Each structure stands twice: as C-alpha cells, then as structure tokens.
Amino acid sequence: MTGLDTLHPRIPSPLQELPDDRFTRHGLRLLLKRDDLIHPELIGNKWRKLAPNLVAASGRTVVTFGGAYSNHLRATAAAGRLLGLSTVGVVRGQELADRPLNPSLARCAADGMRLHFVDRSTYRRKAEPATLARVLRAAGAADAYVVPEGGSNAEAVRGCRALGEELRGRADVVALACGTGGTLAGLAAGLAPDQRALGIPVLRGGFLAADTEALQERAFGGRRGAWTLDDRFHFGGYARTTAELDTFAEDFEQRHGVPVERLYVAKLLYGLVTLAREGAFARGTTVAAVVTGRPFP
Q1: What is the mean pLDDT of residues 80-106?
Q2: What is the pLDDT of residues 152-181, one digit of tens each?
Q3: Which one of 87, 121, 143 terminates a domain?
Q4: Closest CA relative to residue 267, chosen from 203, 213, 205, 218
C-alpha cells in the first residue's frame, strides 16, 4: 500500500467556464480543466502519472530522471515525503554537482530525494539497459523501481485515461501542452469518439507524434482516440519563454484570476487564442484547456 488514499486528491478536477472575448467573438466557449487543483503538491498531470507508478513501486525506492528545473523531480520528491518513500533523482549535468543547488533541486533535497548527477552523454543514453544499470548501481539503487523522465510510461498513460473520461460530453476539443506525450496519449484514449485531443508541444523537434503513438502502443496495444499536434507554440523550446509570452500570461492572469504556469500552460493558452483568431475551430465549438500545472513557489 502506498497510502495514496490518505492524500485526498480532488478527483475529478473542477471544470471552469471562462468568458473571454477572444473566444466568444468567434462563437467559441472556453473551459479550463483545473488539474492544477487536484493536490497542492502533486499537481495536475503529475498526480495522474505518478499515482499508478507509486502503486506499482510497492514501497520500493523510486528512481526517476530530470533536468535542473524539472517539475517532475519536484513532484516525485514531494510524493516521497508525503508517503514515506525513498526517492532518487538522476539529474542531467555532472557539472551541477559542484554548484549550489538551485531552488528547484534544493526543494527536492529538502523533501528527502537523493540527487545523483550524471554527465549529459550518459543522460542521453539512460534508456539503454546497460547504461541504466550502471547509473542505478552508481546511485545505490540497483533494485529500485524506475520511472522515466517526465513520468511517461504505460502505467502513466493508463492513469491519464481518466482525464479524458472526466471530459466525456463536456467539450468538442480538449487541448493541453505536451512534453513527453504521456498525458496526451492517455487523454485521447479516454475521450468519446466524437471528441478530439489537441497537443501543443513545448519542445522543438517534431518527434512527439511518434513518441505519443509508441506510448499508446505500450499502454493499449495501438493508437487510441483522435488526436493531433500543433508544433508552432514552443517559443524556442523547453524552458524557453519570451517577453511576448510573459505579457500574454500576465494579461490572462489579470483577466481571469487564474495563475498561469509559464513553461507549459502559457504556451497552451497562447496557442488556443491564436488558433481561435485563425478560425481553426468552427463556430459553436467548446474548447477545454487542461491546466496541467501551476507556478511553483
């Protein structure tokens, strides 16, 4: 038992309609699926992806991966503290081991996560069995339960299917920002046949379609649901923002009183405003935007 039931997640998460003239003038309704309100520390899709993996871990040490500012590492560390589980974070960048911890990694360490830094070449090969085994031995976690970077594996994808099921009959298009594709893969599988999912990648590269298909193959045995990607709104790549995006996010917060996380959610909302202006959605369409996270303190 992981004790997940003692954390009292807010499931299903709230669905909130926002009157916004950038949508209403085109005959569209905008809804926010407030997954950022599921739990104060295991936020949004982090809960949906981590919960099934924590059950599968069965009390073993959990090892996962991320960069120096990874929200996934922070959520895993918080889960370890809340549930009394041992966690190890494998961090990209050996050079970081000799520097003071940034606020994100310091929070992980304060939550009890052991940090193990690896060089970038090793990190790129972390999925190779021999490299992974070597990293786990060096981290003192050879028998640990491994969760991949971003938390996206078959268990996580099946966990995210509930997100789509919660939105059945509530919207025509369900949109979310994507990093590794796991949430999109599960969401699309849970939607009704007359709904479609739209992913807004926050990384450059155009690889996400293949990754999302591969995740659905591992989780469900094949492609599920109707889903597409629009690669135009990454603003230069992961963890990249611009003055224009910051101004947009600040304006959205002032209009609606909703905190807007910059690396994922702001790009999603900017993309949807642009698509509405371009006429990408037919009049009468209800668009639900999944708020997968919120700004960390």
Answers
A1: 95
A2: 999 999 999 999 999 999 999 999 999 999
A3: 143
A4: 203
Give the list of residues 6+ apart from residue 30 with CB closer than 8 angstroms, or none.
Answer: 17, 18, 20, 23, 272, 287, 289
Report which DSSP code applies to 144. Answer: P
Task: Count up the domains in the chain and report the number.
Answer: 2
Q: Is the pTM for the entire model greater than 0.90?
A: yes
Q: Do residue 204 and residue 272 come from a single domain?
A: yes
Please tell me the distance from the alpha carbon of residue 142 to that of residue 213, in angstroms, as a whole number: 30
What are the strands, taking DSSP E only, across the chain? 15-18, 29-33, 62-66, 87-92, 114-118, 145-146, 173-178, 196-201, 227-229, 286-290
Q: Up-side HSE of residue 68: CA atoms within 13 Å toward CB? A: 13
Residue 49 belongs to a domain: no
* pLDDT above 90: percentage of residues in the chain: 88
How many CB atoms are located within 10 Å of the residue 240 CB? 15
CA angle 217, 186, 286 (to 5 degrees): 130
User: 252: domain range?
Assistant: 4-41+153-290
Instruction: Give the ranges where 60-175 is alpha helix by DSSP (H).
Output: 71-83, 103-110, 120-124, 129-138, 154-166
Q: What 3-state DSSP class applies to 132?
A: helix
Query: When comparing pLDDT for 256 and 59, which is higher?
Result: 256
Co-location of 76 and 217 in the same domain: no
Task: Report if residue 50 sits inside a domain.
Answer: no
- pLDDT for the residue 177: 97
The structure tokens listed for 247 are 């101004």
Q: Quote the CA–CA distance of 18 and 272 in Å, as a whole number.
A: 13
